[in-house]
Design brief:
- 26% of the residues lie in helices and 28% in strands.
- By secondary structure, the protein is an alpha/beta fold.
- The protein has a six-stranded mixed beta sheet with strand order 2-1-3-6-14-15, with helices on both faces.
- Helix 2 links the parallel strand 1 and strand 2.
- The radius of gyration is 17 Å and the shape is globular.
- The structure holds ribulose-5-phosphate.
- The site of ribulose-5-phosphate (5RP) has 18 residues, from helix 4.
Length: 228
């Protein structure tokens, strides 16, 4: 089974939780996209809240009616991907550059379902460079300041140009190696003026669904949640 088939399997398992009438957060990336397609294929009558322009365009092309975050106070369920998942259900997200909107959506979601192939499970976060969204004005300064946090920050570039998020910001990909205390690091990063948000998602995932050659692992995350 190749990785795309595993992603589709995880997406299908998550879509089983979607019911008619729900407001559903639509994640971003190569694992979240099949979930959006399946929601449309199954004719589920939902309203979607996209986490990026790309997901909004995909959902619209499939006829899924959309709402904006400004029009809701709570979201029933969100299906999104991740770049790394630790045993406590903490995540690194933002490989696709949508971390800010993904985190806003997660923060008002009753059931945040994270889907991935099992290569995303790690014992400790940090092998995947942590995406940190910053205002362009402060980017050079923050490269310097973030180095003092023990990482190697790199300004994200795509197609020979600086990558710009849907919010008009830049991303610094920060190679930490190991992040032993994701909650503490998230708070410290937030205190740096010019940092808009980091891709550390702590206490936001309620359910993790991973797919491997052996099938689906669907587990509820235990603990304290910031979005409940
Ligand atoms: C986008 C994300 C994605 O969910 C994450 O990068 C995983 O992507 P993929 O499913 O393509 O591996 O956080 O900002």
């Amino acid at each position: 089974m190749n990785v795309d088939e595993l992603k589709k399997m995880a997406a299908a398992a998550a879509v089983e939780y979607v019911k008619d009438g729900m407001v559903v957060g639509l994640g971003t990336g190569s694992t979240a996209s099949p979930a959006i397609r399946l929601i449309a294929e199954q004719g589920l009558k939902i309203h979607g809240i996209p986490t990026s322009q790309v997901s909004a365009d995909l959902a619209r092309s499939l006829g899924i009616p959309l709402l904006s975050v400004a029009e809701v106070r709570r979201i029933d369920l969100t299906i999104d991907g991740a770049d790394e998942i630790d045993p406590q259900g903490n995540l690194i997200k933002g490989g696709g550059g949508a971390l800010l909107r993904e985190k806003v959506v997660a923060s008002i979601t009753d059931c945040e379902i994270i889907i991935a192939d099992d290569s995303k499970n790690v014992p400790v976060l940090g092998q995947f460079p942590l995406p940190v969204e910053v205002v362009p004005f402060a980017a050079p300064l923050l490269i310097h300041r973030l180095t003092a946090f023990g990482c190697v920050p790199e300004l994200r570039r795509r197609g020979g140009k600086t990558f710009v998020t849907d919010n008009g910001n830049y991303i610094l990909d920060c190679a930490f190696g190991k992040i032993e205390q994701p909650g503490a690091l998230e708070q410290e990063l937030r205190r740096l003026p010019g940092v808009v948000e980091s891709g550390l998602f702590v206490g936001l995932a309620h359910r993790i669904i991973t797919a491997s050659e052996h099938g689906i692992d669907d587990r509820e995350v235990e603990g304290q949640f910031l979005n409940r």
